[in-house]
Amino acid sequence: MESAIAIAGVAVLPDWTQLPEEILVTLFGELGVPDLIRSGAVCTSWHSAYNAFRDACGPDAAALYCPSTGATFRIPMPEPLPLRSLSPIGSAHGWLVVADEVSNLHLVNPLTGGRVALPPITALHNVAGDASLDEEDGLVYNVYEQPGDASRATPVPVGEARDCMYDRAVLSCAPSAGSACVVLLLHSPLCELSFARPGDERWTWIPPGDGRTGLRRSNFYRAAAYNESDGLFYVVSSDDSIYTLDLKGPSPVARRIMSPLRHGDQPYRYLVHAPWGDLLQAWRFRREHEPFPPVETEEDDGPFADPSVELNTAELYLIPLNSKIP
Q1: What is the DSSP letter of 60?
Q2: Do the beta carbons of residue 3 and residue 16 sit within 8 Å?
Q3: pLDDT digits 0-9 by tens, 43-67
Q4: The pTM is what?
Q5: How many CB atoms within 10 Å of residue 132?
Q6: Rounded to the nearest 5 degrees, what angle is found at the Cα of 106, between the Cα atoms of 105 and 107?
């Protein structure tokens, strides 16, 4: 029931539509995302204040999509990590794993503004020292082509390293859990695996083929997921074999739980959590779709078809971990 104000003996309901816009904008900043969106639909003046609040968020606001309601929420991202300068490579538990403009990784919570730094890119085993200047005075990281072979290091511009070094990242839990939070990183070269916890100074490389971890050297790891029910990471290799990875002890321990599968086409591989708690493989086969008629451009070598053809999903399979492809 709304509170009434007595004026000259007459009860008068407060007119909340007449609140000054600057007060509404301040109050909107204290609301949760769903309540904030609903507030914009109360009346014309509140909707105007809501638009002003959104404009105040600026270009570095995050757009969050809610699958259960279909609603999209827009919230501000605080400095010093503006959203538009970040490249996401993973997400879990409300946190994003993002790479900044110099290719260092961070955990960012777009709802709370929380952020946690992870070890820098120079703390990966295959990056040689700090950034240095190349022949054109540009900052570069020296990245090993082969692990441990410093003679074959390739200079990679600091702003481009995030596009070629990182494949994806997986979290075990939110950073608020402290040392229980582990970030597993799939990275170059050869889609290798490294992990770190918030507060670590370096990434811990999981060397394949050394006889201790149980991982094979010839495998390229394409997907990963964390399973809360057993506390293990699961990784999928390019031959579709699957390994569990236990990072709770002093040394990583891997165990193969699914043998390689033989098939012709190479699918895009994913590990997904089912609503009932199981972990599933997802295989997506894509086919090129060329425009008709082909788009042609003139080059020195003559006309050629536009290489930017569409890649469409042709088949999609969801497979329990103990099953084989149909």
Answers
A1: G
A2: no
A3: 888 888 877 776 655 556 666 667 7
A4: 0.73
A5: 13
A6: 140
